[in-house]
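User: For my dataset I need records formatted as: sequence, then structure tokens, nothing else. Please produce one.
Assistant:
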Amino acid sequence: MVDLDPEKLRDIPGWENAPIHICMGADCRGLTFCCKPGYSLTFGFKCSRDEALKDLELSPEEFIKIKEDFSRENDWDSDLVCFGSISYCCMRKGGCSRRDPALQMRYPDKTREEFMKIYYEKKKELAQKILEFVNNNGNKEKVEPYLDLF
């Protein structure tokens, strides 16, 4: 069992003990909230996504494929959001002017509270897919303790 730092966890709808963002020191499950590799970011100076990918021996191309396959499987492609997919959206609980309208369009019969719960449940599922890929491709010791958290 992994020892989680409570300062780096959040209880959000649909995901208890969710990791914060990688750039804020999250564990590897936080990759689910990371942007698409290869783009300049406003806060790029503190982005540690590429470092986390390298540590897990997960190439940017593999990371993109996992996120984009997940996006297609869950009807999360959207011209409204950054990088064309909700799978690249972040954790921001307070709202996002792009993500939230895209989710509203995907789940028109749901309240904001309901579609945000779906969003976080799916982000948890995406985190698990990322870690399972790493686990199945030779870096088991780095992700196995976190897989037990799903």
